[in-house]
Amino acid sequence: MIDPISGFSKLEKEEKITWLSKTYLKGVENAPEILRQYWNPNSNLQQLHEEFTENTLSNYYLPFGIAPNFLINDFRYAIPMAIEESSVIAAASKAAKFWGKRGGFKAEVLGTKKVGQVHFMFSGDKDKLKEFFRQVKPVLLEAAEPLTRNMKKRGGGILNIELRDKTESLNDYHQLHCTFETKDSMGANFINSCLERFAETFKEQAHQYETFTASEKDIEIVMSILSNYVPECIVRAEVSCPVEQLADHDMTGEAFAGKFVRALKIAETEPFRAVTHNKGIMNGIDAVVLATGNDFRAVEAGVHAYACKDGSYSSLTHAEVRNGEFKFWMEIPLALGTVGGLTGLHPLSKIALEMLQNPTAEDLMKIVAVAGLAQNFAAVKSLITTGIQQGHMKMHLMNILNQLNATPEEKEKMVEHFKKHNVSHSAVEEALKNLRS
Ligand SMILES: CC(C)(COP(=O)([O-])OP(=O)([O-])OC[C@H]1O[C@@H](n2cnc3c(N)ncnc32)[C@H](O)[C@@H]1OP(=O)([O-])[O-])[C@@H](O)C(=O)NCCC(=O)NCCSC(=O)C[C@@](C)(O)CC(=O)[O-]
Ligand SMILES: NC(=O)C1=CN([C@@H]2O[C@H](COP(=O)(O)OP(=O)(O)OC[C@H]3O[C@@H](n4cnc5c(N)ncnc54)[C@H](O)[C@@H]3O)[C@@H](O)[C@H]2O)C=CC1
């Protein structure tokens, strides 16, 4: 049985690697070298990366690519994407090219309202609590003034604080449900600081509120935290074109549009399909969120909660044909920042935002939503025509060749060979074996 280690966080990086190698990597004799090979030769840059988080031993590389030719609201973008999965960037690029010839993408921010909650327990008289809240609300806002001054100058700040009775779902459970505008920041730290200030003030004021009995004065604050569910921080992305412009190889535009709409209806009604359908959207969204130094876990949690907003998990995108016009769209909640977090710290996030012309948070919401819509279009287009494997495996070929330790010359010959043959792991193994024999 391996003994626990105390004080690990205080060890030097090399000491941490030595401990890990001796304790968990005994069979991997070059483990330290593998970890060290990913260190940045620029010691200052390596130090910066190590200070992003804790117990850092090395860096974890992800491919950083771009998808060019995105026409969004008549502006041309090359969109940065950080993702390990093959064919995602190719798919986004292909969709950008396709829609760039058909009027491009339209995107509009419908709201930027962020949410945070103070969760507390109160077992006393609810009418007295309501009256207490009515009187204390201005005191809470006043107490947060030092925290909100600068955000207000930018046009942001606290939008509202509501008292919500949640005792139906949990005995004695109430909330201060708070909404915020955080402009170009995702706003987590701003919101959480305000919430903690509300909580301490609310508790102090309750202690002094004469109408409360002794037990009513002792309100239990359970926690104060922003919500990653932001249904009113929402952006719409859309494409449309005459149906005949959708003709694809041996499919008429009308036939393609009809099958595409049916695929979307299936994703709207069948949760097993909807999850994969939405994963395809998030291939595009997460790649841009990550590349720009934003928090993809927060985005994912909020998006999938939103996909359940009507009572069951469903597709985030929708399509229709009306009067000969094909329309394909998505409305999606995205809390993103173009300042704060790593956005201005990580050199690649900085350059990602620079290539997007230093967007505001609202601009970034539009770009990210379009990347998700484009990804979904490319995926569904493949699914309803050639099937996903033909394109995906074409992009995956290099991974298989690398798994089989193909030389550059062998890779060149294999790429040529598989222009005329379907890619599968066994087919590549066979072709490589024949080439080597
Ligand atoms: C993969 C493609 C794009 C091939 O498509 P293709 O028609 O074989 O590509 P092409 O060689 O004719 O090139 C057309 C364009 O595609 C792009 N493209 C083409 N090749 C490359 C490349 N090597 N590098 C960069 N870009 C590439 C590029 O924009 C290129 O234009 P060009 O640059 O030549 O002017 C197509 O089959 C496709 O879009 N497939 C969909 C793949 C996909 O969705 N991948 C996501 C991973 S699968 C998944 O997880 C999602 C899913 C499917 O489960 C979601 C769901 O279920 O809904
Ligand atoms: N549940 C969650 O989602 C949580 C996420 N986080 C992390 O917090 C990170 C982001 O935190 P933030 O508070 O957004 O960043 P931050 O606290 O690093 O920076 C935001 C600050 O930037 C300043 N600022 C300068 N110019 C601004 C402008 N134009 N608009 C708005 N603010 C401006 C303001 O002081 C603002 O408070 C996320 O990436 C996430 O990883 C942290 C806690 C919880």
Automatic annotation (TrEMBL):
<keyword id="KW-0560">Oxidoreductase</keyword>
<comment type="pathway">
    <text>Metabolic intermediate metabolism; (R)-mevalonate degradation; (S)-3-hydroxy-3-methylglutaryl-CoA from (R)-mevalonate: step 1/1.</text>
</comment>
<protein>
    <recommendedName>
        <fullName>3-hydroxy-3-methylglutaryl coenzyme A reductase</fullName>
        <ecNumber>1.1.1.88</ecNumber>
    </recommendedName>
</protein>
<dbReference type="GO" id="GO:0140643">
    <property type="term" value="F:hydroxymethylglutaryl-CoA reductase (NADH) activity"/>
</dbReference>
<comment type="similarity">
    <text>Belongs to the HMG-CoA reductase family.</text>
</comment>
<dbReference type="InterPro" id="IPR002202">
    <property type="entry name" value="HMG_CoA_Rdtase"/>
</dbReference>
<dbReference type="Pfam" id="PF00368">
    <property type="entry name" value="HMG-CoA_red"/>
</dbReference>
<dbReference type="InterPro" id="IPR023074">
    <property type="entry name" value="HMG_CoA_Rdtase_cat_sf"/>
</dbReference>
<dbReference type="InterPro" id="IPR009023">
    <property type="entry name" value="HMG_CoA_Rdtase_NAD(P)-bd_sf"/>
</dbReference>
<keyword id="KW-0520">NAD</keyword>
<dbReference type="InterPro" id="IPR004553">
    <property type="entry name" value="HMG_CoA_Rdtase_bac-typ"/>
</dbReference>
<dbReference type="InterPro" id="IPR023076">
    <property type="entry name" value="HMG_CoA_Rdtase_CS"/>
</dbReference>
<dbReference type="InterPro" id="IPR009029">
    <property type="entry name" value="HMG_CoA_Rdtase_sub-bd_dom_sf"/>
</dbReference>
